[in-house]
Amino acid sequence: MTKTKSHKINLFKEQNTITCLEDQTILEANLAAHVNHTHACGGQGKCSTCRVSVMKGIENCNPRNTEEQLIAEKLNFPIEVRLACQTKITGDVSIRRMVSDKLDMDIISEQFSPDSKVALGSQQKLTIVFTDIVNYTSFAEKFPPYDIVHVLNRYYRIMNATIQKNHGFISDVAGDGILAIFGLYNKKNNSVLDAVEAIKGMRENLVTFNTYLKENFNTAFEIRAGIHFGDVIVGPFDTGEMKKLAVVGDNVNYASRIESANKEFNTKQLLSEEAYQEITDLFPKYNSFKTTLKGKTGEYKLYEIVSE
Ligand code: FES
What we know:
alpha+beta, 30% strand, binds FE2/S2 (inorganic) cluster, 5-stranded mixed sheet, 6-stranded mixed sheet, single chain, 34% helix, 2 domains, Ubiquitin-like (UB roll), Alpha-Beta Plaits
């Protein structure tokens, strides 16, 4: 009788090494070794609570089967995240169980809710836009908090409609600043072009908004914008009371610095080199500026689109 081959599973959290037979799944090996490995659907490949991060030896894992592939696509799993109940190994691996407690379970069950469109912590190439309002500070100094909040809410509401119309969403607001993201939901579009169109629409809407501001506050706003295209980590962030789809990463800070550079060059909209490359055929005329950016090393070339 031929003996079934076995391999080692190094368990990062448990600081332990167990044996896994080639015809066993990682989950089965863990349960046989009395590891408390969550498996809410009983190993059917339906719940994803058995998910593990394969820290070493991903090449020793069998390819994803249909069940696992479906979940991996829905939740945007990176290559190293595997369902322990569907994964068998042909060599040694090191893994970390990703579901430890009820809080982890709650987060996962929300990822399966029908309105959850984005997996926790996926990295994607997206267009990041920061805008702020010229004249906002002088407006905020002159009027009471109630008026400021009311005006900002009116502004956000109008601008959000334009951003959404161009396939973007507002990830965050802070005072007069808006952080908007493009490219997450409509993969077919050029997301930098969507962003440029959205900002154009925001400026058009500002004309009507400024009539209101003129009548009620004797002031008018202008919008400044910074646009960058690059990798960010995107996911639903949840404090328990507040949930939002947010982006994090160095490229988010980069976009913010680009927006700030408008003051230096007296411009209203600047794009990073990476963003401009995406739309160079559509907008061949440009001004460019070389500058250093706060918190970043080296020189950066920024672009201002020149309209015909
Ligand atoms: S236990 Fe449910 S997917 Fe693995």
